[in-house]
Every structure is written in C-alpha cells, then in structure tokens.
Amino acid sequence: MGDIKLIVCDLDGTLLNSKKKISSYTRKVLMKTKELGIHICFASGRDEQMMAVYSKCIGGCSYMLSNNGALVRDTTGNILYEAALEKPDIQQILAFLTQRQMVFMMYTAQTMYFSNDSEKLKKRITNYEKLSEELGYPMKLAAESITADDINRNFDDVAKIVVYEDEEMQMNGFLDFAKNLENVHCESTGYGLQGAFHKSVSKRTALFKIMGHLGVDKSQVCVFGDYDNDLSMFECADRRIAMGNSIGCLKEAASDITLSNDEDGVAVYLEKELDL
C-alpha cells in the first residue's frame, strides 16, 4: 500500500465499535497512518456536528464528508462541496411530516432542527454530548426544536432531512411522497433511518471532489465501509475494504474483507498492509 495517499472510513459499523467509540488501538494506528503523510477522510451519513468528536480523537482528519456526501470540509474548515435541498422541496417535506406528526431531524451547516420537542431526538443529542465529555472533547450541539408553525421559515443550506419512524406504513408513505419530488432522492443514512437529500448527493460524488482536490486517482485511495450507503464510494477506489459485519452487497463489491468493527477491522487491515 505504499502508493496510498487517501484512506476513507465510514464511521458507524466501520470505524466505530458498538459503543460508538474509536478504540485506543484503532486510534494509535490512525495516528501512525497520518505520520506517514497519508490523508484520512471520515465519510458518514451523520451530520458533521455529530462527527466532530471523532476527528478530534485522532488530532483532526484531512476531510470530513458528512450527510452521505451533501457537505465536505477540509482540515481548515473550508467547504469544498455542498449540495443542499431546494427551498420548495424543504417546505413540502416539512409540511408532509408535520401534518402526520412524524419524528424527523433537519440538518444545516450550522444547526440541527428536531421535530416537536421530540424526547427521542433530545435524548439522541444529549447522549452524544455525554459521549463527547466521556471521550475528553466536550461539545455542545447547536440544536433547536421546530413545530408546524415553523415550516415556512427561510431555512438555508439544508443538507438532509432524516425521518425516524418505526411504523412501516408511515415510512413507506413518506418514501412514496418523496418520489414525486423531482429534485429529491431518499436513501438510508444509518440503520433504520431514511434521509431526504438533493438528487445530486452521494458519497461517490463527494469523494471524487476530495480526490480532485488532492490530485489522486483510484489506485491511491483505500475505502472502508459496511452498509449500502457506502457502496457508491467503492466506485472511487481500487482498494475497497468491507468490514466483517458488512451487508452482503458490500462484501460482493469489495476487493478485500477485514474483521468486524468490534474487532478493530480497520486498524488490523492498515497495520498489516502499511507494515506499521
């Protein structure tokens, strides 16, 4: 792997273990990888606010690809790429969700908006803040509750709207509705979650932007993933590493399979291939 210039890691189910942490062993391996001059990119369906603590854990990564590719920042905080939902689509989606009292969260580059003072989503926010304290990098998330009265507000830079719905009929109803929005597409943004994005959004598109910024090609990129929203990234790299806990289609598309996320699969692979 002496020619590798960029390592791209999904977070949940890939770099993070079941406790949502980067193990001390994996952290050490990533730090050694950075010392070799190799760039690290975290690529996640998460919003960048909920990725930041993991970047801090390794002393900063070169690129943050968040919201399944709707937003990319470099290590200095500059936005390299952004594909936001269009305002008419935002209003239609918010109207649909609020009328049906569905639980959702909307993400902009600055703020997270959650529906109707949802206890479920408030707990999600506080759990992340507690985790950040536990990891030694305390963070306060910029989050705000919104109601049906807020749907006509002028929201800017909306990267995604995520629906948290356990009722299958409700979720299917939302997906059928979203199909009629010409500039919107929906895809998984985590286990059991559906996100609405601008139609141009994918991890593949965003990763190619990063590769262009670095001036690297597929032979110099190594990608790790576990879920179907990582599949498009595999088109960007010759080294496509599926985790042992990956879904079947990702393993089929992989050039190699490593151990699971709870067995430090990313670190084990890198330590061996880079001869650390």
Automatic annotation (TrEMBL):
Query: What is the superkingdom listed in this entry's lineage?
Result: Bacteria
Q: What is its EC number?
A: 3.1.3.-
Q: Where is the signal peptide?
A: none
Molecular function GO labels: magnesium ion binding; phosphatase activity
Q: Does the keyword Hydrolase apply?
A: yes
The UniProt keywords, alphabetically, are: Hydrolase
The record's Gene Ontology cellular component field reads:
cytosol
**Keyword Transmembrane helix appears in the UniProt entry:** no
Matching InterPro entries: Cof, HAD-like_sf, HAD-SF_hydro_IIB, HAD_sf
Q: In this record, what's one Pfam family?
A: Hydrolase_3
Protein name from the UniProt record: Putative phosphatase YwpJ
Give the source species: Robinsoniella peoriensis
Lineage at the top is: Bacteria, Bacillati, Bacillota, Clostridia, Lachnospirales
